[in-house]
């Protein structure tokens, strides 16, 4: 029989299991990889911003220091000589010395004669007004993005230093490969770690023994799932066993009357039967045919009940009236066995299908007659109880052994097979009772003692 959990445990061979493993791996890997990549990207941006801030801060500090020193040099020639020595061609900073009226007196990168008046520049204006100023813009002279910082000297002139953004860009370009390399390393490590974690997560699932759930190490979240699988497997095994037994029993029960019918018919056809025995053989054929018809009808009823999940069009049924009609139909059998029937009933209305309730009552009372002692007694009660409305039938018959009570509702199961041959029946009566009760949402309770009798109580819900 196919075992769902065993197939589930074969992770490498089962597509669903592989899909779960891949899903866990992808989910964990993507979460970690994306988080790591985002962290590396954020780190690169933060380093870039901090470096840019550090570059501008260093430029501002250098400019203020240079301005302080120039304030100590009153002579313009000394100032120009100082600037020329400090900001040569190999310095990445550009310095511009501007007179109070905006005239460029010195520039470390371009000849001062070729430069226009700088008084209108934003950083120069801010320096004139507040003592210092800064701006970030594209330089028309050098043709790139420049950061400017200007400081006003004591004599009203302006010292301006600048640095191109290419310094920060170069730093960023250096950080990108380092960041990519770091992300690749993180992804590789993440892949290995994630694969290991996924294997550890899946291992308890692969190792589950569906036949020993309690002894298996299993996640609490998955325990109800595997419990359900275990229950379904047991139910399937039970159903399969019942199906096989039912098929075997049906074959046997059909074969017996058919064999008798065929045998008697052949004896009559071949002239082997004496003329005075023909009527007897015909009667036996008729009885076996009736038995066969009863058996087929009961099998059809059970098949219909198996396909019924509830009462489609329920009606109000007086259970007291149903039992009274059933007793009238069974009066010949009661008289034949010389059984005393004591019946007490109140008007008790239930909801359901009258035909099915009639079959339920008939089969319970019929069993109480068949398996009773000659001259025995049957007590029948219909009325309200704490659980609902009861139909209770007690007999003084052969009784049922305790180990057989749970099996009497199985199809074709007979407690006393030797006795069953004398009383007849199809062996499906109590199976029909069980299914009718299930369809109507009723409960069945059986109490019995071997050699003393049996009580079967069916409790219907009150309306």
Description:
It is built from twelve helices and twelve strands. The protein has 463 residues and is of the alpha+beta class. It has a five-stranded antiparallel β-sheet. Strands 7-9-10-12-11 form a five-stranded mixed β-sheet, with helices on one face. The protein has a two-stranded antiparallel ribbon with strand order 6-8. Strand 11 and strand 12 form a beta hairpin. Helix 10 runs antiparallel to helix 12.
List keywords for this structure.
single chain, 463 residues, alpha+beta, five-stranded antiparallel β-sheet, five-stranded mixed β-sheet, rod-shaped, disordered N terminus
In short:
By secondary structure, the protein is α+β, with helices and mostly antiparallel strands.
The biggest beta sheet reads: 5 strands, antiparallel
The tally of beta strands, per DSSP, is: 12
What would you call the structural class? alpha+beta
Estimate the global geometry from the Cα principal axes.
rod-shaped
How far from one another are the termini? 44 Å
β-strand percent reads 15-25%
How many helical elements? 12
**Rg computed from alpha carbons, rounded to a whole number of angstroms:** 51 Å
Strand order of the largest sheet: 2-1-5-4-3
Q: How do the helices and strands follow one another from N- to C-terminus? A: HHHEEHEEEHHHEHHEEHEEHHEE
SSE arrangement:
Blueprint: H1 4-9, H2 15-71, H3 76-86, E1 94-98, E2 104-107, H4 122-130, E3 132-138, E4 145-152, E5 158-164, H5 166-206, H6 223-269, H7 275-306, E6 315-318, H8 319-329, H9 331-336, E7 340-345, E8 349-352, H10 354-370, E9 377-385, E10 388-395, H11 417-423, H12 429-439, E11 443-449, E12 453-460
Parallel strand pairs: 7-9
Antiparallel strand pairs: 1-2, 1-5, 3-4, 4-5, 6-8, 9-10, 10-12, 11-12
């Amino acid at each position: 029989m196919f075992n769902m959990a065993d197939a589930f445990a074969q992770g490498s061979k089962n597509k669903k299991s592989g899909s779960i493993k891949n899903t866990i791996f992808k989910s964990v890997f993507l979460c970690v990889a994306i988080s790591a990549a985002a962290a590396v990207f954020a780190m690169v941006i933060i380093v870039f911003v901090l470096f840019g801030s550090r570059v501008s801060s260093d430029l501002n500090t250098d400019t203020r220091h240079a301005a302080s020193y120039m304030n100590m040099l009153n002579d313009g020639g000394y100032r120009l000589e100082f600037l020329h020595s400090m900001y040569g061609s190999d310095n990445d900073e550009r310095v511009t010395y501007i007179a109070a009226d905006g005239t460029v007196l010195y520039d470390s990168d371009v000849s001062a004669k070729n430069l226009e008046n700088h008084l209108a520049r934003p950083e120069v204006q801010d320096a004139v007004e507040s003592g210092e100023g800064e701006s970030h813009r594209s330089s028309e002279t050098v043709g790139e993005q420049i950061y400017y910082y200007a400081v006003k000297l004591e004599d009203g002139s302006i010292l301006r230093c600048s640095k191109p953004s290419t310094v920060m860009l170069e730093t960023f370009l250096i950080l990108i490969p380092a960041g990519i390399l770091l992300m690749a390393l993180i992804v590789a490590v993440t892949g290995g770690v994630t694969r290991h974690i996924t294997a550890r997560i899946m291992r308890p699932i692969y190792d589950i023994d569906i036949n020993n759930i309690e002894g298996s190490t299993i996640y609490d979240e998955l325990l109800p799932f595997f419990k359900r699988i275990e229950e379904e497997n047991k139910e399937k095994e039970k159903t399969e066993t019942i199906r096989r037994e039912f098929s075997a029993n049906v074959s046997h029960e059909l074969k017996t009357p058919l064999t008798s019918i065929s045998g008697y018919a052949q004896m009559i056809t071949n002239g082997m039967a004496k003329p005075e025995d023909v009527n007897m053989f015909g009667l036996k054929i008729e009885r076996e045919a009736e038995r066969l018809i009863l058996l087929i009808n009961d099998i059809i009823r059970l098949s219909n009940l198996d396909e019924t999940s509830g009462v489609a069009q329920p009606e109000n049924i007086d259970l007291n009236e149903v039992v009274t009609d059933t007793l009238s139909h069974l009066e010949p059998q009661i008289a034949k066995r010389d059984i005393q029937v004591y019946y007490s009933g109140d008007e008790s209305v239930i909801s359901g299908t009258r035909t099915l309730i009639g079959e339920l009552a008939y089969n319970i009372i019929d069993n109480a007659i068949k398996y009773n002692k000659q001259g025995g007694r049957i007590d029948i009660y219909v009325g309200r109880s704490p659980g609902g409305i009861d139909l209770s039938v007690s007999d003084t018959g052969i009784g049922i052994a305790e180990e057989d009570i749970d099996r009497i509702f199985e199809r074709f199961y007979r407690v006393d097979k030797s006795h069953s041959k004398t009383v007849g029946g199809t062996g499906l009566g109590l199976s029909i009772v069980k299914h009718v009760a299930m369809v109507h949402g009723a409960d069945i309770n059986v109490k019995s003692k071997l050699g003393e009798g049996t009580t079967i109580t069916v409790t219907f819900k009150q309306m």
